[in-house]
Write a structure and sequence with these properties.
- The complex is a heterotrimer.
- Helices cover 75% and strands 0% of the residues of chain A.
- In chain A, helix 1 packs antiparallel against helix 2, helix 2 runs antiparallel to helix 3 and helix 2 packs antiparallel against helix 4.
- Chain B has three domains: 85 residues, NADH-ubiquinone/plastoquinone oxidoreductase chain 6, subunit NuoJ (Four Helix Bundle (Hemerythrin (Met), subunit A)), CATH 1.20.120; 84 residues, Immunoglobulin-like; 38 residues, no CATH class.
- The N and C termini of chain B lie far apart (69 Å).
- Helices cover 68% and strands 5% of the residues of chain C.
- A three-stranded mixed sheet of chain C has the order 1-2-3.
- In chain C, a hairpin with a 2-residue loop joins strand 2 and strand 3.
- The N and C termini of chain C lie far apart (93 Å).
- Classes of the chains: A mainly alpha, B alpha+beta, C mainly alpha.
- Chains in contact: A-B, A-C, B-C.
- The interface between B and C is medium-sized, with 19 and 26 residues.
Chain lengths: 106, 270, 707
Amino acid sequence: MFHHIALGDVQIIAAVLFCLGLAVALTRRNVFLLLMGIELMLNAVNLSFVGFSRGLDAQASLVGQMTPIFIIAIAAAEACVGLAMVICIVRGRESLDSDAFADMKE
Amino acid sequence: MLHVLDAILGPAYFWLFASISMLCGLGLLLSRHPINGALYLIGVMLSLSGIYALLHSPFLAVLQVLVYAGAIMMLVVFVIMVLNQAKEHVIPLFDWFSLAGLILPVVLGGALVTTALQVKPTFTLNDPLGLIEAPIADQSALRVQFNAINAGDKATYQWEFGDRTSAGGRQNDHTYAAAGTYTAKLTIADSASKNGTASVTFQSVSVPRGEVAILAATMFNSHRNGPGYYLLFELIGVLLLAAVVGAVVLAKRNLDSPPPLKVTNEEGHH
Amino acid sequence: MKVTFELLWLIPFLPLLGAILNGALSLGGARSAYGPNRGFVSFIAVLMPGLAFVLTVIAAFKLSGIANVESNPALVQNLWDWMSIKVGGFTLNVQIGLMFDRLTSMMLLFVTGIGTMIHLYSVGYMWEDRGFARFMTYMNLFMFSMIMLVIGDSLPLTFLGWEGVGMCSYLLVGFWHQNNDYNDAARKAFIVNRIGDLGFLLGVFALFMVMNQNGQGSFNYREIASWFNSASNAGIIAGSAGLLSAACILIFVGCTGKSAQIPLVTWLPDAMAGPTPVSALIHAATMVTSGIYLLARLSDVFVHATAPVCFGLTALDIVLVVGCITAAWGAVAGLVQLDIKKALAYSTVSQLGFMFMACGVGAFDVALFHVFTHAFFKATLFLAAGSVIHGLHHEQDMRRMGGLAKLMPITYTWMFCGWWAIIGAPLGSGFFSKDLILERLYEAHFLGPIVGVVAGFVALLTAIYMTRVMYLTFWSPVRHSDEVKGHVKESPATMLIPITVLGFGSLVVGVLWSPVLGIPPHSSFFGVALGSNAFESYLSPVVGSAQKFMHPQAAAHHASNLPLIVAGIGTLLAAVGWLIARFIWSRGHVNSTEKDLVGFAAWWTWGFDRVYHAIVIIPTKVAAWILAWIVDAIIGGIVGLTADVARFLGDGYTSVQRPRLRSSLTLSVAGAVGLVALLLLSGPIAWVVGLAALAVAVIFLLLEFLF
């Protein structure tokens, strides 16, 4: 059966959330917020996938939802590694400000 | 009855969750302390979980709550609390870099929303007798469900879909092979109440972004490629394992060695 | 006629299971000082081959219940498809299938039977060793491989077992890997076997090419045999005689590697570095006979390869000549050995030469009969030698032995039986099998009698060097070293029981093909004809067609006086050899010049290692040097150039790179957004987005310079 939620609206919400996440990642200096912005972007992409997969027939829709699961797993891995790196960096520099890491060029 | 409720409440709940998620996203952008940001992000994730449930993806909804809101964000919150330092409040919320950085998301968001609005199919009805109910379509309008009104038991319905195919029946779910402008025509005859014709014109498009989803869907299509799921889960397992091992190694190395001296930067800033 | 037997898979699987269990135990107990529980390990290690033996016996009885003798009765089991290739008219299907016909049953009965005995012996011999569980794991794995070699129904499966026994031989020869000489010996065994295996593979492919000319190429033994015996394929066989001969020669190269024939002979004496049960099981009784097994298996192929290869000799003639030279070489080398195990090892080489001689004149059943008797008496000799070594606290030098007949009476008794059998003294098992070989040699075509004279001479030498071993070890005065003098004791029961069983067997198994029982030839016992030629009639469904092809009128040979003459000559040679050895070595004195006859540089090795060095090692080194140069100069150059380019670009890029994390992030995202605008979007939106991305990039670069 067809759904009553317009799938174009889902894509709009996903786009808005993605851009919010991008804004957080680009503008905030706190590394935690940076990471969380990336998480928000991943979530928005998930939503987009789910929205598109609803437009497909049943079988393709079911397997199309595997991609968000895949992304969730990668996000979990990324969070583990990212937070571990944050801990490492912060212990050495006593700061959560990403501008304080400006010597990474060397 | 439930069907009707679903039809009314579904969009309502959807917009409720959508508003919550967008507001929480905004809150994340403007939060002063990362712990506030984390709570806002959890709000986003929980409302996204609701949207998944509304989109008939219950498993993903549960997984979203369990893994994202439960595990990942709990980890983030713990680390924030472990590393919590009072002076973090002195980091200014916005500076020139931030304001300039806002340009990209705003422009990109505007472009994306505009595109999404553009591809929302519009149906132009030429229906003086009121024979057709509003068609329902997916975002590309390549697959449309046409509904005629109930014109009585003896009525016959004849649909011509505009791509040289036709069918009878009151309700028809038709898939178009290619994008284009189509005019679907309905003829109702032998009806007690209403006889006559009506047509609906619309434009279907092929959305490139939709193909990404199809690609992802067929990549894991178990019917065609054998048990692809297993490979997927293997990959996920390996990635998780690598992440955990990496985290442990990093943490141990950091515990074992004294923190490095802060390197002063000579030429980075001007 | 094929009958499916559902339990066949258990015969190879049980030893594999034992290897897996013992391997797990060995790994699990690796941390502890003494290793895993030895009782449990030895229980598994002996039980699994023992059960395989019981199953083999059951299968053999079931096999003998199949009435139709003429069409090679066999028990089969198809496990699963291995490979199925269908490319452009070329079809290849290989199944993992097991076949238990009479040849397999004969091989398996002694492989599993003697194998079980040797496992039992190993329990006593290796009990004190730190790596007991590891040793038992390898032994069980070897049993699995050897069983797969003989029970597989196709050449690829045999090759699987073929490689498996080679690997186990490597692992077991180098078992005491603390000693680097032993590691070298293991590597030598492995590498020499690889050369042979290459020949095996190429030969198999060539054989497939021959058969595939009418689209019936197959690796299955039954299909190969029926293809070559089919009259409709005679034209193809005649048309591709050269290729067929090449296939046979290449397969024979594989056999020379595994069965230690010239030129791939030198690994076997070195392989005596392994523990003695290994020498008994692998390097005397089972693995080295797999070459004979393969020749017998492919006997139909070999007899049809009638094209002369060189000097007018056919493939089988080459087998005959190589076997003859190897037999002579092993016997000569055996005369001068000081190490008791090496003497037995050269004796093995020599006896294998006898078997190949028999194959060379098309007497495959006689060769297999010698394989059978040799497995018994050589295993006896090796196990008894191991018992001597064990009793003398790991003394292997025969110059420091002597007088053991009284000190180790049980070992002596059964070693005597083994000696009695190998020299061909009357009524021992070697008496029958060796005399049969000599008889067939004299009956064969022009080359046979010449070779037969050499073989008779080799039989004399065999008697001499084996009697020498007996004198130096048991019959001469005591010459023990000071450390062991007075501490020499008989070995434990777990070692003596297998020696007893096998020693008894080495006395009596010869009656399976002997005229002494007086039983009428056509009486039968479970379908197996008893009497004078039980062994021959038992194997005739497998190798009979090949032998009939080779000797169409051979049925008459039992009628002549030749067997009696040969038996007389054989007895005479044994007696003369005994007397010569008694004359020279009865006092246990060894000519001291033999000290410098150690290793493969000595005269009696005929310079094999030097030849190897010239034709294998030096070309390999040259090729390796050239390859190293290519890798260094060309590939290394390309890699270095790539790295240089990347470094150059990276250095250039760092001058553009901005230090702030946010700047880098924004610039990269701006690039991505620009790409999106360029590739995915169209119309005015694309312009807006693209220009915005460009603007952001410019603004950020400006900001970086401002702040």
